[in-house]
Design goal:
47% of the residues are buried. The protein folds into two domains: 235 residues, Type I PLP-dependent aspartate aminotransferase-like (Major domain) (Aspartate Aminotransferase, domain 2), CATH 3.40.640; 115 residues, Aspartate Aminotransferase, domain 1. The chain has twelve helices and 14 strands. Strands 1-9-8-5-4-2-3 form a seven-stranded mixed sheet, sandwiched between helices. The protein has a three-stranded antiparallel sheet with strand order 12-13-14. By secondary structure, the protein is of the alpha/beta class. It binds pyridoxal-5'-phosphate. The site of pyridoxal-5'-phosphate has 14 residues, from helix 3. Pyridoxal-5'-phosphate binds next to helix 3.
Length: 369
């Protein structure tokens, strides 16, 4: 099929639409930042940190330069003295592996639960040892699972829990926000995330005053105060003033945008009923539908059929961390992780999709045999 004969394509994402929606507010923020003369850690940055902490119900939120930096700094801040291994899932895109390695730690993987696709007590507990200092739990695809028991089990082994909320910002289980359950949490404001900036950005949340102080030192050269390096392992990772201002525009929209994402997934679930594609539900507040993910053991064929129907698809994520050549991880068998990497398929899901586009995806899903 040539490009010119293709029907109108429903894209995986189109960032220009959200930018158009918020253009006037962004322009106002831009003017205010120019007028203030503060371009790093100014009043908009301070205000956004406070608004974010309030929204999540945590003691402290600290802006940093990306989600990967947020993970690196959170892991460093949380790692207990004398330990040096990070345990995580291998199906979450490799960000934690990159961050943990940069922090100077080794990574070991636990398999994931076949239903939630996230770490669970059952998959993690058997591996805990006195070497593992931190478990990073990724709330994959936006799904905040009940990690309360996992956190308790980790704590009983002296292990700290970092939540990776890059896909789950705004998710709430029994009213409790993703990022407020473990010891510390990291998130990303990469433009396609549920709360996206106009460039890179990230943040770290915690309810621990001690960890919050460590994070603020680590993100700025290890300074306890200006030019006084008292904390080892510091770096330079700051969220700039403009991005903080843009994010301040979008934070009040987040719950509504997440609701729209959930409704898109609900449409796909209904359209896929009785068909070959199993669309994972995102039915309530604990799931913010960062991605609309389906399972199929005929992925190539189904992707081709959807593409013919004008629907873009993607795979999150095709290669588990322990099989990435660049990570050169120790050989490990993770049967559920490996099977899911063959079967997951992502459908278009972003809040600015039109109703016509959602209908077009549903039509293409219903036509699958
Ligand atoms: C996007 C993402 C990150 C990394 O964020 P960056 O800002 O791109 O560094 C980390 N973890 C998860 C689960 C992500 O989806």
């Amino acid at each position: 099929m040539t490009q010119s004969l293709a029907p109108a394509v429903v894209p995986m994402n189109d960032l220009s639409r959200g930018i158009d929606r918020d253009r006037e507010d962004f322009a106002r923020v831009f003017d205010e930042v120019l007028a203030s003369g503060y371009v790093i850690m100014g009043p908009k940055h301070a205000a956004f940190e406070q608004e974010l902490a309030k929204y999540l119900g945590v003691l402290s939120a600290s802006g940093v330069a990306s989600g990967t930096d947020a993970l690196e700094i959170a892991i460093k801040a949380a790692m207990p003295a004398g330990r040096s291994i990070v345990m995580t899932a291998a199906n979450a895109g490799g960000y934690t592996t990159t961050a943990a390695r940069r922090a100077g730690y080794n990574v070991r993987y636990a398999d994931v639960d076949a239903n939630s696709m996230c770490l669970s007590v059952e998959t993690v507990e058997q591996h805990l040892s006195s070497e593992i200092g931190v478990v990073v739990v990724t709330h994959l695809y936006g799904n905040l699972t009940d990690i309360n028991e996992l956190v308790a089990v980790c704590h009983s082994h002296g292990v700290k829990v970092v939540e990776d909320c890059a896909q789950a910002i705004g998710a709430r289980l029994s009213g409790v926000a993703a990022g407020s359950i473990g010891d510390i949490a990291a998130t990303s404001f990469y433009p396609t995330k549920n709360l996206g900036a106009l460039g890179d950005g990230g943040a770290i949340f915690t309810n621990s005053e001690e960890l919050a102080v460590r994070v603020r030192e680590l993100r700025q050269y290890g300074w306890s105060s200006k030019y006084r390096v008292t904390r080892a392992g510091g770096t330079n990772s700051r969220l700039d003033e403009l991005q903080a201002g843009f994010l301040g525009v979008r934070l009040p929209l987040l719950d509504g945008l997440n609701e729209r994402r959930r409704s898109i997934v609900a449409s796909y679930v209904a359209a896929a009923m009785d068909g070959p594609l199993q669309v994972l539900p995102a039915a309530s507040a604990h799931h913010v539908a960062h991605l609309a993910v389906a399972l199929t053991d005929r992925r190539d064929e189904i992707r081709a059929a959807l593409s013919l129907g004008g629907v873009q698809t993607d795979v999150h994520f095709p290669v588990p961390d322990h099989l990435q050549p660049g990570f050169a991880a120790a050989a490990q068998s993770l049967p559920i992780t490996e099977r899911l990497a063959q079967e997951v398929l992502s459908l278009p899901c972003f809040p600015e999709m039109t109703d016509d586009e959602i209908d077009a995806v549903c039509t293409a899903i219903s036509a699958l045999r």
